[in-house]
Amino acid sequence: MNEPITYLSVCAEQSDEHTVLSFAARAADVLRFASIERIGRDAQGELRGFQRPQVAAHIREIRDYLEKPNAVLPNPIVVAFTDRVEMQDLGDGLVRLSIDMSSGIPGLVVDGQQRLSALAEIDRDFQIFVSALICRDEAELRRQFVLINNTKPLPKSLIYELLPTVSDLPPRLSRRSTAADITARLNFENTALRGYIKQHTAPEGMITDTVMQKIIMESLTNGVMRELIRGPKGATRCVRLVSNFFDAVKKTFPDAWHGHKPASSRLLHGAGIEALGDVMEVLAQRSHARSAEDFREGMECLKGKTAWTAGEWNFDGEVRRWNSLQNVNRDVALLKHHLVGVVKSNQRQQRKAAPAPLLEPVEGTS
Question: Which residues contact 99 (CB under 8 A, 6 or more apart)?
Answer without folding.
Answer: 4, 5, 6, 7, 33, 81, 84, 85, 106, 107
